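Bug #77: duplicate submission created two jobs. Keeping one. Sequence:
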Amino acid sequence: MNLKRGIVLKLLWALSATLMLACVRGLHGAIPTGEVVFFRSVFALLPLLIWYGTRGELGTVVRTRSVTSHFGRGLSGTGGMFFNYMALAYIPLAQATAFSYAAPLFTVIFAAVLLREVVRIYRWSAVAIGFAGVLVMLIPALAAAGSGAGQQVFLTGAGAALVAAACSALSVIQIRRMTASESPGAIVFWFAVLTTLIGASTAIFGWEMPDTQQAMLLIGCGLFGGLQQVLVTLALREAHASLLAPFDYSTMIWSVLIGWLAFSVVPDVTTLVGSVIVIGAGLFTLWRENVARRSHNAAA
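Kept job's structure:
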């Protein structure tokens, strides 16, 4: 294992994830969200199949012991994808990224409710502080949006981003359950297959024929989505997940930079301050989980 290499790969994962979202933001909501989900999923399969094929692991990723668990994870994951892409049609990239950092806070709540995990005052305090950070971003942004249509646009985007974070947290809980019987490759592969089918089913509600630029953005969204899966797999082979997790938040750096270069948008101070609060709460939650895990292992 090589920690430095793992960190570099995780930073590249963050860049790839942000570029994927930037492609969605570049569509400006002109393409139906279900259609975006379809293109993202079907083109994500290309780098995944190449990667597993060159490693001779295609047979492994296709095998599964629990179709129903993949279906449940596919629904929550598609929900996260759908609402995240919807948010990007209404709010800037950095702002959507900041709201997505609420996902670990929702994970704590779902772990207590669904997995019956014992969550002590430290982590509940982190959840409360994290959501205070969300309010720091929400309230001033609402005031800046003005009244009427401006506030409605922002609330729609912010609400979609928070629902996406909750769906992502639910996916994390489901993956925790699935790892007991399913390989990481199977979880990734079947998720891409299911989201492709779910995205395709939305065609009955009407799709738009993309122009050349939109088609390139849709393809780019899928390729970057698949690439990020390969990069995170490589990163986890070089370092433990607990050591790499804090680098998830480097997506904010990439979001600010890409938002400025591609869309000439610089996040306001309240978005940055609120995201720092939410990130701090998320890091504290991660630290407490690691402490609890080490204590449990020592007791065992």
